[in-house]
Design a protein that fits this description.
By secondary structure, this protein is an alpha/beta fold. It is built from ten helices and 18 strands. Strands 9-8-7-6-5-13-12 form a seven-stranded parallel sheet. Strand 2 and strand 3 form a beta hairpin. Helix 2 runs parallel beside helix 8 and helix 5 packs across helix 6. The chain is elongated, with a radius of gyration of 22 Å. The termini are close together. The model has no long low-confidence stretch (mean pLDDT 95). The structure holds pyridoxal-5'-phosphate (PLP). Pyridoxal-5'-phosphate (PLP) binds next to helix 9.
Length: 332
């Protein structure tokens, strides 16, 4: 089991999440079931909010990258915790607004935004657009002009850094569908067209790590934010540049550790001299990340959580795709 303060085993040998019996939850609501520990979500949001206020220039703030968990309740919590929302579609903006979010606190990100969605966000009064390309900048400019709006924008640039992660989640290198590259001069061209002044906001995006297994290191988010503050102060002084407000877009680091998916085991298949499959009543439909890029997870048997995890199995879903797995070599 992951070493997290909100996970425990009760007297019946059942997993508890934030003190609530996981087996009872599965019985009451059915499976597959996403369970989110609200206290933990609020705690992470508060950590970003407070630490950024303390260690970064004024105006700095976190935006919850809502693709990590986009539903009305999450937006309601984010609003109450005073953090913004990063959205990547009209649907997400609509969901945020219907949960009472103010459009001012919404940033519309993502590549390949259709005109109808740009128009929807401009008219709704989205606080910020994350501009993904030169052509998109022109489209947003035209749309804002037609609607008599002066739209605030962030410009997404790719710094040309290879982050050495799985290629499906790389975003910083020049060869990337997101943003305009600094190396090719296209980022500077975008800056020239959009900015006649000193940039007042530097948005560092998301991507702060999350441990998914017991072997992976935990991250001290407050320390990361402090080191950003120190580095920023140092570089701004060296470049004689006014320190910009820092935006961050944490997604998984807000919700991942707080979230557990409950499934019901439907079948166990032992294939001699091969492997053991444990088949559950969900799969890539509710968790596509293993199928997309082999994201690793920790699994355990919720109604026997106190027993040692000594069987290595392949956890598979019920979709008619052989790639519909939730994990391989998982100890349960
Ligand atoms: C996915 C995404 C993030 C968040 O990434 P995490 O790894 O979940 O923190 C932030 N900003 C944008 C635009 C994204 O698409």
């Amino acid at each position: 089991m992951l070493n997290q303060p909100n996970l425990a085993v009760n007297q019946a040998g059942h997993l508890t999440i934030g003190g609530v019996d996981a087996v009872a939850l599965a019985e009451e609501y059915g499976t597959p079931l996403y369970v989110l520990d609200e206290d933990m979500v609020r705690g992470q949001m508060a950590l970003y909010r407070e630490e950024m206020k303390k260690s970064l220039p004024s105006g700095s703030r976190p935006y919850f990258a809502s693709k990590a968990m986009s539903c009305k309740e999450m937006y309601r919590i984010a609003k109450e915790e005073g953090i913004g929302a990063d959205t990547v579609s009209m649907g997400e903006i609509y969901t945020a607004l219907s949960a009472g979010f103010s459009t001012e606190d919404v940033c519309f990100h993502g590549c390949a935004k259709p005109w109808a969605e740009i128009e929807y966000a401009v008219k709704a009064g989205a606080g910020l657009f994350g501009v993904d390309s030169l052509e998109e900048l022109a489209r947003i400019d035209r749309c804002a002009g037609e609607n008599g709006v002066c739209q605030r924008v962030l410009l997404r640039v790719t710094p040309g850094i290879d982050p050495h992660t799985f290629s499906a989640v790389d975003t910083g290198q020049v060869d990337c569908k997101f943003g305009e590259a600094i190396q090719t001069g296209q980022a500077m061209e975008m800056v020239r067209r959009a900015l006649g002044y000193t940039a007042g906001i530097l948005d560092l995006g998301g991507g702060l790590g999350v441990p998914y297994t017991a072997e992976e290191p935990t991250v001290d988010y407050a320390a990361v934010i402090r080191s950003v503050g120190e580095h920023l102060a140092c570089r701004c002084q060296a470049l004689d540049y006014p320190p910009p407000a820092i935006f961050m877009e944490p997604g998984r680091s807000i919700v991942a550790a707080a979230g557990v998916t409950l499934y019901t085991v439907q079948d166990v298949k032992s294939i001699p001299d091969c492997r053991d499959y444990v088949l559950v009543d969900g799969g890539m439909t509710d968790n596509p990340r293993y199928a997309l890029y082999q994201a690793r997870y920790t699994a355990l048997i919720a109604n026997r959580a106190g027993e040692p995890a000594d069987c290595s199995v392949t956890l598979a879903g019920r979709c008619c795709e052989s790639g519909d797995l939730i994990g391989e070599n998982m100890l349960m």
